[in-house]
Amino acid sequence: MSLKRVKRFERLIPSPPTADQVHNPQHMPSNIDDSARRDHTPSPEVGIEMTSSNSDDKRPLSPHLGIWRWHVTMATSIFHRASGVALYVGALILTAWLAALAGGGQSYGAFMGVLQNPLGLLVLFGITTAACYHLANGIRHLVWDAGKGFAPKTSNASGWATIIFGALGGVTVFALAFLV
Amino acid sequence: MTNSLRTPLSRARGLGSAKSGVGHFIQQRASAMFLAALLPWFALSLIINTDGSFPSVASWLAQSFNAAGTLLLVLTALFHMRLGMQTIIEDYIQTPVARTLAMLVNTAVPAILASVAALSVAKVFVGA
Questions:
Q1: Cα separation, B84 vs A78, whole angstroms
Q2: Quick check: B56 pLDDT over 70?
């Protein structure tokens, strides 16, 4: 890696060192703590290969599940993706239901028999809950796309609201389906 | 870098986006908005107007408004679903061959489901 490339990394820390200091990290300004030095200061032996994975590198890269403390906006993001995958199965079931309906009373009855046994109902309840959650959180995303609701307090509150809507929505739809 | 005779623009060209991300983004949002209306309508209309038995559901779907709405729901959902799964594949599958295969499957599955759903709705609609 060229000296100039290294200097670009050095701009990340408060006071840019001179070219001489880049190759002599012990001359770094003392107001920088050790972690910053480890993260951004290329020592002479690793300076050549900045891109190689370094076990000392503690910079957060992306929200890896094992590293980040769970918080509501992170959970809603993960649930959104998970519920989307669940709805892939939901689309499969919806299409199969339509095909069974098109096949006539007998095939429809057989298919509903499968859906209405306890395991089928459990899957159906999970997909209904996923649909309610994905709908609510999708609307939350549309509001974000409009540039609103980014304040931490607001996004935390709307995150809890979508989780509650998803849970209540699944129960409500099932209650309506069995009672109405 | 500053010693190079190449202009900054020339160095940046070809290294940017795949140029189709905005279309994907807008299609995802547009289909989401239609689904936000279609899915609640579908669920509530079925719950209110049918008892889940074959005759009631078949006669519900034989009405033109319901048949059109159901078909629109399924097609929009499959379109939206394909875009979402594409994002997941691009995020998690790095191997070129596996990624291409996953993308092909992610195109085939919605296409097959769309064909089956469209023909099924059409069949119930015309009462064949």
A1: 13
A2: yes
Nearest Cβ partner of A105 from B48, B54, B84?
A: B54
Does A135 lie at the interface with B, CB-CB under 8 angstroms?
A: yes
Instruction: Identify all chain B residues contacting A91, using CB atoms and an 8 Å cutoff.
Output: 74, 77-78, 81, 110, 113
CB atoms B47 and A173 under 8 Å: yes
| Neighbour tally for B96: CB within 10 Å | 8
Chain A residue numbers with beta carbons less than 8 Å from the beta carbon of B44 are 176
pLDDT of residue A66: 74
Do A98 and B121 form a contact (C-beta atoms < 8 A)? yes
Q: Name the pLDDT band for B11 (thresholds 50, 70, 90).
A: confident
Give pLDDT tens digits for A76-91.
999 999 999 999 999 9
Tell me the average pLDDT across B48-61. Answer: 96
Surface-to-core class of residue A110, CB atoms within 10 Å of its CB (0-12 exposed, 13-18 middle, 19+ buried) = exposed
CB atoms B36 and A135 under 8 Å: yes
Q: Which of A80, A85, A93, A101 to mutate to test the interface with B (most CBs of B within 10 A)?
A: A101
Helices within B50-128 (DSSP H only): 54-61, 64-92, 96-126
From the CA of B78, how many Å to the nearest CA of chain A?
7
Residue A56 confidence class, pLDDT cut points 50, 70, 90: low
pTM as predicted: 0.75
Task: Answer whether A110 touches B (CB < 8 Å).
Answer: no
